[in-house]
């Protein structure tokens, strides 16, 4: 099967010394991190992390194992609170916010290790993600008043609509834990979308997928961005996926950014090549 090419926006510079897609110029960036860092004891796990993401950008965060990528995700979602630096989400400072507040402000994420409610149905897992949109009162729910049933019907329809993104609507009644691995990965993305995010963080979404599933995932990531007009930041080790779909790419090594740019920039950067492949040894003199 021929490799599908995804159309990427032209990346242009902005005043923060970053690049964003040209189509996002004139709009507030969805994410602006400035000199972000966190220390664990005396160890600087992430240091001077500065990144801007456009409102509809598909961005990549890559680096060797242990580079600090998931730590960055944990900082963005307030699992960890930064030791220093600033995070602006849609122009609003997130300092002091909780994980729940950040989700309501517009960041949703998936995880390296799948975190579904395995004994609940596929549909119920998606409905849990719809909590940001549920507006009926506790009394309505307890007494099963008309407002409750109206919202339940709407939640059912919305869950099926979201599942249809991955053609999973016919699996709505299955137990989440009974799904194949790839389908569980997709369900976790759907549940994150159910929270109505402005920025979707995907932590190794292609992990454990075969090439066919990965190709389908690439198509669906582009579809999600185009359908919901949101930004996506993904951590991924599959370089075919990253280089094929990401518009801006940031490379971490030992908690610090060593390169930022387009796929072409990153592929030709000597520091990136060294971080992934190691420094080439000089030939011994004859």
Describe the structure.
With 286 residues, the protein is α/β, with parallel strands linked by helices. The chain folds into 2 domains: 1-106 and 197-277, Rossmann fold; 116-194, no CATH class. The chain has 10 helices and 12 strands. It has a 6-stranded mixed sheet, sandwiched between helices. The protein has a 4-stranded antiparallel sheet with strand order 4-3-6-7, with helices on one face. A two-stranded antiparallel ribbon has the order 1-2. The radius of gyration is 20 Å and the shape is globular. It starts with 10 loop residues before the first strand and ends in a 9-residue tail after the last helix. The model has no long low-confidence stretch (mean pLDDT 89).
Q: How would you concisely characterize the structure shown here?
A:
34% of the residues lie in helices and 23% in strands.
Descriptive key words:
globular, 34% helix, 10 helices, six-stranded mixed sheet, 286 residues, Rossmann fold, 2 domains, alpha/beta, four-stranded antiparallel sheet, 23% strand
The quaternary organization reads as single chain
- Which regions contain 5 or more consecutive residues with pLDDT less than 50? none
Helix content: 25-40%
Average of pLDDT:
89
Secondary-structure map with pairings?
Elements: E1 11-14, E2 18-21, E3 31-40, E4 43-53, E5 58-62, H1 69-76, E6 84-89, E7 92-93, H2 99-105, E8 107-109, H3 122-129, H4 138-143, H5 146-163, H6 181-193, E9 199-203, H7 211-228, E10 231-235, H8 239-245, E11 248-253, E12 256-261, H9 263-267, H10 270-277
Parallel strand pairs: 5-10, 5-11, 8-9, 9-10
Antiparallel strand pairs: 1-2, 3-4, 3-6, 6-7, 11-12
């Amino acid at each position: 099967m021929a490799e599908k090419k995804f159309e990427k926006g032209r990346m242009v510079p902005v005043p923060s010394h970053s690049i964003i897609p040209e189509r996002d110029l004139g709009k507030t960036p969805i994410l602006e991190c400035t000199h972000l860092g966190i220390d664990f004891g005396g160890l600087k796990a992430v240091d001077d992390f500065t990144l801007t993401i456009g409102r509809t950008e598909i961005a990549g965060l890559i680096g060797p194992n242990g580079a600090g990528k998931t730590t960055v995700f944990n900082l963005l979602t307030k699992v960890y609170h930064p030791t220093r630096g600033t995070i602006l989400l849609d122009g609003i400072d997130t300092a002091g916010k909780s994980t729940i507040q950040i989700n309501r402000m517009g960041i949703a994420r998936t995880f390296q290790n799948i975190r579904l409610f395995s004994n609940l149905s596929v549909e119920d897992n998606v409905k849990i993600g719809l909590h940001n949109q549920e507006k009926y009162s506790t009394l309505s729910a307890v007494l099963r008043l008309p407002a409750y049933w109206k919202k339940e019907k709407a939640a059912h329809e919305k869950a099926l609509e979201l599942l249809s993104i991955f053609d999973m609507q016919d699996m709505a009644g299955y137990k989440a834990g009974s799904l194949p691995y790839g389908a569980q990965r997709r369900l976790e993305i759907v549940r994150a979308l159910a929270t109505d995010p402005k920025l979707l963080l995907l932590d190794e979404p292609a992990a454990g997928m075969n090439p066919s599933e990965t190709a389908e995932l690439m198509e669906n990531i582009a579809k999600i961005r185009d359908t919901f007009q949101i930004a996506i930041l993904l951590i991924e080790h599959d370089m075919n996926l990253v280089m094929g779909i990401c518009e801006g790419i940031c490379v971490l090594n030992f908690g610090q950014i060593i390169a930022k740019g387009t796929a072409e920039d990153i592929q030709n950067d000597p520091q990136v090549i060294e971080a992934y492949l190691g420094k080439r040894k000089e030939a011994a003199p004859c």
